[in-house]
Design brief:
The chain starts with 22 loop residues before the first strand and ends in an 8-residue tail after the last strand. With 276 residues, the protein is mainly β. The strands form 5 sheets. Strands 11-18-17-13-14 form a 5-stranded mixed beta sheet, with no helix packed on it. Strands 1, 4, 5 and 6 form a 4-stranded antiparallel beta sheet that branches. The chain has a 4-stranded antiparallel beta sheet with strand order 10-12-16-15, with no helix packed on it. Strand 2 and strand 3 form a beta hairpin. The chain is globular. The protein has 3 helices and 18 strands. The structure holds the ligand Nc1nc2c(c(=O)[nH]1)N[C@H]1C(S)=C(S)[C@@H](COP(=O)(O)O)O[C@H]1N2 and molybdenum atom (MO).
């Protein structure tokens, strides 16, 4: 998205910033039920953390919220275990919120206080950041609540192997990647193109570890020597696929880029063995 138009002050995540883990904890819904929360429309569940974020304006501790309807669903956890080990401090130990299907920003780490309230959190990271602003809007002067608040993640995929800029030998090339559909929907298909999207081949999908985890995929193609562009796009089980380019998705804070995955590689001619 930075290539479409610069986004000052934001990190170029490129192919990074996603992973999958196995979580164990208590259902947030059980805790809210035990606290006697009444299920009224429009309520939000807000989470507060102790870490103070210098990039927030004004400077404040991290916080966010999710609608009560999502908070009451069975997948939302207060987690204390990650991949069968006590939750490491860097990932929010001793206890963090895990909101599967939503952007990472709602999975508050080191959670200190949970509040059921009439509307969304007024924390900087809910009211001002993590919002899709219209292209012409100035993030420096945007008002709290302006733009679209990010909640469920957009259908997306990426190519993990080969890496961008890799040199690979001509011949059979196995491409590996991940695909994830938003808010619990399933990945129905992943396509790979070697000709900029004119023609596509279907990749093999591995089974999903759960409804909430990514699906890994792979496809073996024949790589011919010279520069080669690999594209991938996922389809979800409602028949939706990813947009071709980030140009039409551009927004001042650079969120929600789910355009086709792209990796450029250089295919080297197969080495001819000298005759004995
Ligand atoms: N307390 C606290 N929780 C937080 C954050 C933070 O800065 N402070 N960052 C959020 C964001 S933006 C993301 S993407 C995830 C990252 O979680 P991870 O460090 O386990 O990958 O934590 C979320 N929870
Ligand atoms: Mo994030």
């Amino acid at each position: 998205m930075l290539k479409v138009h610069p986004i000052p002050g934001k990190d170029p995540w490129a192919h990074g910033a996603i992973s999958t883990a196995e979580w164990r904890g208590a259902r947030l819904s059980d805790i809210l039920d035990a606290a006697g929360v009444r299920h009224e429309d429009g309520l939000h569940v807000a989470f507060n953390a102790p870490d103070v974020a210098p990039e927030a304006s004004p400077v404040q501790a991290y916080g966010s919220s999710i609608p009560l309807s999502k908070a009451m669903s069975e997948e939302v956890l207060l987690a204390w275990q990650m991949n069968s080990e006590p939750l490491p401090r860097v990932h929010g130990g001793p206890v963090r919120v895990v909101v599967p299907g939503y952007i990472g920003a709602r999975s508050v780490k080191w959670v200190k206080r949970i509040t059921v309230q009439p509307g969304p959190s007024e924390n900087y990271f809910q009211a001002l950041d993590y919002r899709i602003l219209p292209p012409e809007s100035d993030p420096g002067t945007a008002k709290p609540g302006e733009g679209i608040s990010l909640s469920s993640v957009a259908l997306n995929c990426d190519i993990l192997v080969p890496g961008d800029g890799a040199e690979v030998p001509a011949g059979p090339l196995t491409i590996h990647g991940w695909a994830l559909a938003g808010d619990g929907r399933g990945i129905a298909r992943v396509d790979v193109s070697l000709d900029g999207g004119h023609t596509w081949c279907q990749a093999d999908l591995q089974p999903a570890a759960s409804r909430w985890s990514w699906r890994l995929w792979s496809l073996t193609v024949e790589a011919l020597s010279g520069p080669m562009t690999l594209n991938a796009r996922a389809w979800d089980d409602t028949g939706v696929t990813q947009p071709e380019s980030a140009a039409g998705l551009w927004n001042p804070r650079g969120y929600g880029n789910n355009a086709w995955a792209r990796v450029d590689v250089n295919v080297l001619p197969r080495r001819v063995m000298p005759r004995p």
